[in-house]
C-alpha cells in the first residue's frame, strides 16, 4: 500500500494509473517523432495536449470504477465500463487535439494516434483487472497471532486485498486459543526476525489476542522493521486495507496519539471554496434534470415537491436538509421516526428511480451553498437516530466534527443499510474519512460517486 495525502492506495493501482497516463503521452509524442525533424517543434504543444488528455482519462476511468479492485466483477462488466469510458474518451481526444495550432504538422495523424492511445488504455484496464500476472505483484504477509483477531485479519485479506498472499499465522508467546486452521499455523524457527526473513515476508500484521506479560517481542519487531519488513498493528491494518477504522480494534489512545483528525483553518477554508464552486457548477448543470424531476413528482402524487427535515450537522447543530420528496406524504403518519429500508413501500414510483440514481439528493446543493453541508462528508442523520446510535456505538459522535456531506466515503463504499449494525459499518468508513480527509480524498469520493450513480450501487 502507498499513502498519498493520508489516503491508502494499492501500489499496483498507482502503477496502473501511471502506466495509462504514460501510454497516452508516449503515443502522441511518438507520432510526432516518427514524422521527422519538420514537426519536432510541435512537441511542446502535443505534450501539453497529451497531458490534458491523460488527466481527463484518469477522471473518466476513476468515475467508471476501472481503478477499483474487481472482486466479483465479471470480464463482461469490466468491458461494459470500458466501452462507457470510450464513449467519452474518444470524442474528448478528438476535441482536445483539434485545438492544436493550425500550422502543426500532421495534426490529423496525431489526433488519430491519441484516439488509438485512448482505446489502448481501455483495453489495458480490462486486461490488467483480470490478468493472472496480478499474482506476481502480491505482497507476502505474515500474521502474528492465531486467535480470533488474527482470523479476522486473514478473512479480510482474502476478500478485500487481491494483492496479498498470506504466508501463514505465527502464534504469540502466550496464546492458547487457536482459531485458525492447523495447516496454516507456522512454527517459530529461531527468532521472529529469523522466521520472517526466512519466509521472505514483506509485512507483519500484529494481531495478538493477548498483549500482556511479555507477549509482544518489541525488540524482534523492531529488528524486522530495520530489515525493511513493514510492521503494522491490527487497527492500522484495517485502516489501510479496508479504508475503515474498526472500532473493535482501536482505543482512545490510538485515535488521540496517532496522526490524522486534523481540521485546521486552511483546510476548512479551502474546503469551503471547493464546496461553493463545485456546488454552483453542479447546480447549474443539473438544473434541467431537477426541473423535470419536480414536474414528475407533482404529476405522480399530491403534496410538496421538496422534503425538508431537521438533521444534525457540524458539532451537533441542527439544520433543515432539503431533498426531492421520494415518499408518500403519510410516510410517518404515526409520528414515530422509522429507518428507510431497501424496498421501502413508502417510496413512490418516481421516488424509487430518483433515489437509485441520487437525483433526490440534488437539492442538498442549496444546503451546501448555505454552509450547513459540504459536498463530501458523513451522511446527516436525524436527532432521534443520532441519540440512539451515540448510546450504542462508541465514537459515533466523532463524525459530527466535520460538516455532513451530499456524498461521502461511507455512501460510496457501503451498500444500503437500515440497522444499527449497518450504522456501525458506515461509521467505520466515516471515522476513516474524518481522520484522513483531504482535498485529494474529497476528489476521489466525488469521482466514485459518479461510478455509484452510473451503476446504481452504494448506500443511501
UniProtKB/TrEMBL annotation:
Which keywords does the record carry?
Membrane, Transferase, Transmembrane, Transmembrane helix
Give the UniProt subcellular location, in the record's own words.
Answer: Membrane
Give the membrane topology, semicolon-separated if more than one.
Multi-pass membrane protein
Q: Does the keyword Transferase apply?
A: yes
> Which stretches make up the Bacterial sugar transferase domain?
271-454
- Regions that span the bilayer: 12-33, 45-67, 79-97, 109-128, 276-297
InterPro entries in the record, alphabetically?
Bact_transf (IPR003362), EPS_sugar_tfrase (IPR017475), Sugar_tfrase_EpsB_2 (IPR017464)
Q: What protein family is recorded?
A: Belongs to the bacterial sugar transferase family.
Q: Know the name of this protein? A: TIGR03013 family PEP-CTERM/XrtA system glycosyltransferase
Amino acid at each position: 500500500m502507498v499513502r498519498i495525502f493520508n489516503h491508502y492506495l494499492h501500489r499496483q493501482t498507482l502503477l496502473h494509473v501511471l502506466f495509462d497516463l504514460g501510454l497516452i503521452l508516449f503515443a502522441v509524442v511518438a507520432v510526432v517523432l516518427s514524422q521527422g525533424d519538420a514537426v519536432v517543434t510541435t512537441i511542446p504543444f502535443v505534450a501539453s495536449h497529451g497531458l490534458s488528455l491523460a488527466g481527463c482519462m484518469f477522471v473518466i476511468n476513476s468515475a467508471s470504477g476501472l481503478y477499483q479492485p474487481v472482486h466479483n466483477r465479471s470480464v463482461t462488466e469490466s468491458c461494459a465500463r470500458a466501452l462507457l469510458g470510450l464513449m467519452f474518451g474518444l470524442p474528448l481526444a478528438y476535441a482536445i487535439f483539434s485545438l492544436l495550432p493550425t500550422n502543426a504538422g500532421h495534426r490529423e495523424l496525431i489526433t488519430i494516434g491519441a484516439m488509438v492511445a485512448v482505446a489502448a488504455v481501455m483495453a489495458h484496464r480490462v486486461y490488467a483487472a483480470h490478468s493472472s500476472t496480478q499474482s506476481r505483484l502480491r505482497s507476502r504477509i505474515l500474521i502474528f497471532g492465531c486467535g480470533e483477531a488474527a482470523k479476522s485479519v486473514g478473512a479480510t485479506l482474502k476478500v478485500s486485498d487481491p494483492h496479498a498472499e498470506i504466508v501463514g499465522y505465527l502464534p504469540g508467546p502466550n496464546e492458547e486459543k487457536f482459531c485458525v486452521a492447523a495447516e496454516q499455523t507456522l512454527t517459530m524457527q529461531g527468532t521472529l526476525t529469523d522466521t520472517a526473513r526466512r519466509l521472505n515476508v514483506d509485512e507483519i500484521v500484529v494481531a495478538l489476542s493477548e498483549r500482556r506479560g511479555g507477549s509482544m517481542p518489541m525488540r524482534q519487531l523492531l529488528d524486522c522493521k530495520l530489515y525493511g519488513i513493514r510492521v503494522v498493528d491490527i487497527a492500522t491494518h484495517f485502516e489501510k486495507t479496508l479504508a475503515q477504522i474498526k472500532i473493535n480494534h482501536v482505543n482512545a489512545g490510538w485515535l488521540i496519539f496517532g496522526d490524522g483528525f486534523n481540521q485546521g483553518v486552511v483546510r476548512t477554508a479551502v474546503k469551503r471554496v471547493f464546496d461553493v464552486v463545485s456546488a454552483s457548477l453542479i447546480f447549474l448543470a443539473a438544473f434541467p434534470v431537477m426541473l423535470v424531476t419536480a414536474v414528475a413528482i407533482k404529476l405522480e402524487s399530491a403534496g410538496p415537491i421538496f422534503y425538508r427535515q431537521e438533521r444534525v450537522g457540524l458539532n451537533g447543530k441542527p439544520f433543515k436538509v432539503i431533498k426531492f420528496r421520494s415518499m408518500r406524504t403519510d410516510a410517518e403518519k404515526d409520528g414515530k421516526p422509522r429507518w428507510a429500508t431497501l424496498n421501502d413501500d413508502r417510496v413512490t414510483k418516481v421516488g424509487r428511480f430518483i433515489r437509485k440514481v441520487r437525483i433526490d439528493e440534488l437539492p442538498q446543493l442549496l444546503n451546501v451553498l448555505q454552509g450547513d453541508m459540504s459536498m463530501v462528508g458523513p451522511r446527516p442523520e436525524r436527532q432521534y437516530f443520532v441519540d440512539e446510535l451515540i448510546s450504542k456505538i462508541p465514537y459515533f459522535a466523532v463524525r459530527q466534527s466535520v460538516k455532513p456531506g451530499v456524498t461521502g466515503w461511507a455512501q460510496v463504499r457501503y451498500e444500503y443499510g437500515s440497522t444499527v449494525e449497518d450504522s456501525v459499518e458506515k461509521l467505520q468508513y466515516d471515522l476513516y474519512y474524518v481522520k484522513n480527509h483531504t482535498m485529494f480524498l474529497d476528489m476521489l469520493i466525488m469521482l466514485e460517486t459518479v461510478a455509484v450513480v452510473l451503476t446504481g450501487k452504494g448506500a443511501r
